[in-house]
Amino acid sequence: MSNVDMSDAVWHKSSFSAAGNCVEVARLSGSYTAVRHSRDPDGPVLVFTEAEWNAFLQGLAVGEFD
């Protein structure tokens, strides 16, 4: 999604992060969520729609990725 504006991104690191192996998440305008690796803040960013992000969170809640 190259047309998503990232200029207002405020990145948040997981409270479960340890030893620099972390992801950061930012809520963006237009109901998007961005995810990046904290060690590479200028590297690639994954951007999800609100529906995609909610489906991911629901999957986490029911242990789908264990």
Mind explaining what this structure looks like?
The chain is an alpha+beta fold. It has one domain (12-61). 18% of the residues lie in helices and 27% in strands. The chain has one helix and four strands. The chain has one helix spanning 50-61; strands at 12-13, 23-28, 32-37, 46-49. The longest helix has 12 residues, at 50-61. The protein is flat, with a radius of gyration of 12 Å.
Strand order, sheet with most strands: 1-2-3-4
- Rg over alpha carbons: 12 Å
Give the low-pLDDT segments: none
- Taking the alpha carbons of the first and last residues, their distance comes to 28 Å
Strand content: 25-35%
Structural class: alpha+beta
Query: Got a strand count?
Result: 4
The number of distinct helices, counting runs of at least 4 residues, comes to: 1
- State the share of residues found in helices, binned by percent: 10-25%
Largest sheet: 4 strands, antiparallel
- Indicate how many domains the architecture comprises: 1
What is the N-to-C order of secondary-structure elements (H for helix, E for strand)? EEEEH
Average pLDDT confidence is: 89
Shape: flat
